[in-house]
Design goal:
The protein is mostly beta strands. It contains one helix and twelve strands.
Length: about 140
């Protein structure tokens, strides 16, 4: 059972939520009280890919470990390039313990295959070898 406890002030609610987590074992309940601030993660992408948050949701307490991972939509045709915003670097995965709200963008690019060269026939290869051989012989004569 998870619930929220709101602490009233003269202005209403405290700037963060306090969560009471209750875990039941038979007839015994253990409760833990979170007094850590609640931070939000705002993720976006450029290109064909997605950002995965684990645990999912986008709102995390300061003591909670979060994994942020960038994944290309089509791994054979797209690649993760870099992070922008509050995350940086070229590693696709970051492990974070939140200490502030974060906004970040994962940049993906399309993998461009090199153009295919036309297949050369045996006759064309022989002609190329002959041409290179004649050119090499001429340069040695000079």
């Amino acid at each position: 059972m998870t619930g929220y406890i709101y602490s009233p002030t003269s202005f209403g609610v405290e700037p963060y939520e306090t969560t009471l987590n209750c875990v039941g074992y038979a007839d015994v309940y253990v409760a833990s009280l979170h007094t850590d601030p609640l931070y939000t993660f705002a993720a976006s992408t450029s290109g064909r890919g997605t950002v995965l948050l684990d645990p999912p949701g986008g709102a995390y307490f300061g003591s909670q470990d979060v994994t942020v991972r960038a994944e290309p939509l089509f791994p054979t045709h797209d690649t993760f390039e870099r992070w922008e915003g509050d995350l940086s670097g070229t590693e696709a995965t970051h492990y974070i313990t939140p200490s502030s709200d974060m906004t970040f963008n994962a940049v993906f690019s399309e993998v461009v295959d090199p153009p295919e060269l036309p297949a050369l026939s045996g006759l064309a290869l022989a002609g190329l070898a002959l041409a290179l051989g004649v050119a090499g012989a001429r340069s040695r004569q000079r």
